[in-house]
Amino acid sequence: MTDSQLVARAQEGDLPAFEELVKKYQREIYGLAYRLVLDAEEAKDLAQQAFLQAFVHIRSFRQQAQFRTWLFRIAINQCYSYLKSKKKFGEPVDPAEFVMVGEESPEEDLVTKDRRQRLYAALERLPAKQRAVITLKLEQGLSYEEIARVLGGTTGAARVNYCQALKTLKKYLQNEDEHEVAVRSYSKVVARISRR
Length: 196
Prior knowledge:
Layout: H1 3-11, H2 15-37, H3 40-57, H4 67-86, H5 106-125, H6 128-139, H7 144-151, H8 155-173, H9 176-194
């Protein structure tokens, strides 16, 4: 069943249809929340709040946008509210939480681990909106148009925020080669973390 069909049924009060939407998107919403607030427990709570808000407002959803985009917007708004109320911008993340299983030799694994740690340290220094754009683009694979709908701006602003975030990451990492490797490995690491 498509999202449109499930949404239409959920709008008529079909709870199992909404539960299907939750099952389909719960991992993505949790991953998005985690990348923004950098706290596993808070991310779980925020993901639940996002689904609760979606359930409460499902009847007002006009299927002009994709349900996924609408849900991302709700989740990001929940995260922004949390960050503002708790003043948690820039709170450090423990890079040891991110474990990457690879086929590298122990030496290569140490280099990769060091690069990952540097990348995560640089990511946590980004403003929340830039972190959101990076997450939506690299992890979720959204286009600039979709990012603009999720974050409530223009396509140009989404592109500028993304480019600025990459430029800032490059500055933080101080070495263009490490930056390129780090951004490529970020996508792989995120995919593995999201499967947990």
